[in-house]
Amino acid sequence: MTQDEQKQAVARAALQYVVDDAIIGVGTGSTANFFIDELAGIRDRIQGAVASSDATAARLRSHGIKVVDLNDVTSLPVYIDGADEITPQGAMIKGGGAALTREKIVTSAADKFVCIADGSKLVQTLGRFPLPVEVIPMAHAIVSRKLAALGGEPTLRLKDGQPLVTDNGCYILDVAGLQIGNPAQFEATVNNIVGVVTVGLFAQRCADVALLGSPDGVKTLVF
Ligand SMILES: O=C(CO)[C@H](O)[C@H](O)COP(=O)(O)O
Questions:
Q1: What topology is assigned to 3-122+204-222 in CATH?
Q2: Which reaction does it catalyse (predicted)?
Q3: What is the interface pTM, i.e. ipTM, of the complex?
Q4: Does the beta carbon of 134 sit less than 6 angstroms from any atom of ligand 1?
Q5: How many H-runs (helices) and E-runs (strands) does the chain carry?
Q6: From the candidates 38, 85, 103, 187, which is the catalytic residue?
Q7: Which of 41, 180, 190, 203 could form a disulfide with 126 if both were Cys (CB 3.0 to 4.6 A apart)?
Q8: How far apart are the C-alpha atoms of 16 and 72, rounded to whole Å?
């Protein structure tokens, strides 16, 4: 299977985690987009979805799926999203699509996180993919220096030659050169830097289930 075929296969497999008559959380990125397209086929079975980005909200609406404000939701049985890297223990790097803060907020509201990813995302140690860190714009230089002091090589993410601005009006630093041996501890350390909005490490709250693509089909990991 190609990478896209793997993404489509895990997206389809994730439908089994959709809870009837519920509002579900939906992530951001190309794998999440495949999932939204699959979800359209069973949209009458759910009440609606909480979106982790403006792009996801637009795609849900384009399929006639109701987008619900998280503030109006008291129960979110499941959140389904991709990842940039995931370990065999379920810790993840996310934020390649710049949606890490809303992804982490929706994750915190969900009973279960189902990660859907092609097999290339499974790694033994997080950090080959540059770690996204969302920052308050006035603090990007000072936060960069602090991340460099932790051993990383931060780069301000650009779009069309200008700093990329997230849905929250913030910037993203992509931190290369890390080998993250203790993801939960590193998540706490980076979150503690003043000016950081969110670090794209999902380790204190890992995935509960991962559906990973492989040449032979979808493999399920339960954490
Ligand atoms: O965290 C994310 C967006 O902020 C995505 O889940 C992550 O970047 C994976 O994307 P893709 O499914 O396109 O490989």
A1: Rossmann fold (3.40.50)
A2: aldehydo-D-ribose 5-phosphate = D-ribulose 5-phosphate
A3: 0.98
A4: no
A5: 6, 15
A6: 103
A7: 180
A8: 25
Full pLDDT tens readout for the chain, 223 residues: 899 999 999 999 999 999 999 999 999 999 999 999 999 999 999 999 999 999 999 999 999 999 999 999 998 999 999 999 999 999 999 999 999 999 999 999 999 999 999 999 999 999 999 999 999 999 999 999 999 999 999 999 999 999 999 999 999 999 999 999 999 999 999 999 999 999 999 999 999 999 999 988 999 999 9
Residue 75, both tokens: 């129960």
151 assigned binding-site residue: no
Q: How far is the CA of 98 from the centre of ligand 1 (A)?
A: 8
Question: Which residue is associated with the tokens 């200008």?
Answer: 162
CATH top-level class for 131-200?
A: alpha beta
Characterize the bridge pairing of strands 131-135 and 219-222: unpaired
206: left (phi over 0), alpha (psi -120 to 50) or beta: beta
187 is catalytic: no
Q: Is 73 helix (H, G, I), strand (E, B) or coil?
A: coil
